[in-house]
């Protein structure tokens, strides 16, 4: 390894190590010491990049969000052009659920992050901003689908946005084997059918 | 304090102490040592009741579930007799959301517990069993409402049950101020309107 290691690259490697620990062993195990060990750096080196566990977590979540956005982008590229708004919303929602290993890691990171954020004002601002941005993006998609007549008139875009985001509650049910992946997808499709009307 | 302290009572006092710490400071702070301090017992005394943090958490969750059931029971007593199934489902769902301080504590306990359960097979069995029991109860209510004609025929009770439980995803959105309590209730009502048809 060259002496001059790329700062950004090493931060990403550390985020990856944190991510593996959270996915496989849980958030409680993700101490600074354990993450340093997994990333193959000393505790001092780790502290050079992140002064606290909360700071490390904030970076790892930003990284996880980037990964989710990249998965959504790849999914969008596979849809019709222009894509049907139902397909776009389905993609955004299902990429937030632990239906595949990649999305499972993000979902677990997210659960840990949300729990920590409830009691950490700085994290709460960060995650709140991220979620409100996500909410605005979904609301824009729903307003556009209403304007273009894909969604029957009279639906309240704010309420429909909250309902759609509420379905991320399926993540917990999936993680704990209360709901099977196929059943989660049926529930999502049932909800979208009711929002858009059945596919034409 | 008499020497002979009621075992059950002290366990409940310890669960209460754990619960306050989780509500106010977060799960990461709820170590055995911190809970002993908050409950006013020695670490040795605490270990006499709970041999591990996971065991203490399992008991506290059972206690939180009892509190939730008690709140639902009290709410049921205030409904018409016989209650409309829509009102029953609305009560069950809203008592799972952090809309009031009491329910907020339960909801935070639950989030911590679920996160821990993802990586602890014994906890996962316990929480999974609890959630599957809850799911069965909701499905029975929906089947009965279908049989009695409150819900339009042709709805799939399994899918409708999963969709209703998925709305517990509102808990996170409420905790992080992404959705306001009134908006969460509007979303719940919109969903129930669509399931039952508008109130007659």
From TrEMBL, chains A, B:
Species name: Auraticoccus cholistanensis
UniProt xrefs under InterPro entries: BetI_C (IPR039538), Homeodomain-like_sf (IPR009057), HTH-type_TetR-like_transc_reg (IPR050109), HTH_TetR (IPR001647), Tet_transcr_reg_TetR-rel_C_sf (IPR036271)
SUPFAM superfamilies found in the cross-reference section: Homeodomain-like, Tetracyclin repressor-like, C-terminal domain
Keyword vocabulary terms for this entry: DNA-binding, Repressor, Transcription, Transcription regulation
GO molecular function, one term: DNA-binding transcription factor activity
HTH tetR-type domain residues: 8-68
Top-rank taxon, per record: Bacteria
DNA-binding region, residue intervals: 31-50
Pfam families: TetR_C_6 (PF13977), TetR_N (PF00440)
Lineage: Bacteria, Bacillati, Actinomycetota, Actinomycetes, Propionibacteriales
Name of the protein: TetR family transcriptional regulator
